[in-house]
Amino acid sequence: MNNLFILIISATAIVFLLLFVNLIVGDKKPYTNKLSPYECGLMPLGEGRASLNIQYILVAILFIIFDIEVIVLFPYAVTINNIYTYWIMIIFIIILTIGFYFEISQGALKYVDEEV
């Protein structure tokens, strides 16, 4: 038999063996703190979800876009060996700069401190 097949079978057998041992040996005494959804020891005071300002999400999206820009530009910066690669990199940076200017002109990066 193949070694990978033996590994998969033995790993599956170990998982089911440990689950069976847990069913036999595990503690089965439920109590109120164990059954409550909050296990930190404090009772909830209000809603579990808090409203989030949309500007935080916009900044996170813009961060991801410019983080991907760095990931795309890094191989070009390391292997820049001809004029074609150079101009592709320049065109990419120009397109991103135009997009960044558009975001600034639309006010996407203005932070307004207001309660939600």
From TrEMBL:
It catalyses: a ubiquinone + NADH + 5 H(+)(in) = a ubiquinol + NAD(+) + 4 H(+)(out). InterPro entries: NADH_UbQ/plastoQ_OxRdtase_su3, NDAH_ubi_oxred_su3_sf. The keyword Mitochondrion applies. Its main location: membrane. Keywords: Electron transport, Membrane, Mitochondrion, NAD, Respiratory chain, Translocase, Transmembrane, Transmembrane helix, Transport, Ubiquinone. GO terms for cellular component: mitochondrial membrane; NADH dehydrogenase complex. Gene3D superfamilies: NADH:ubiquinone/plastoquinone oxidoreductase, chain 3. Core subunit of the mitochondrial membrane respiratory chain NADH dehydrogenase (Complex I) which catalyzes electron transfer from NADH through the respiratory chain, using ubiquinone as an electron acceptor. Essential for the catalytic activity of complex I. This is NADH-ubiquinone oxidoreductase chain 3. It comes from Entomophthora muscae. The lineage of its organism: Eukaryota, Fungi, Fungi incertae sedis, Zoopagomycota, Entomophthoromycotina.
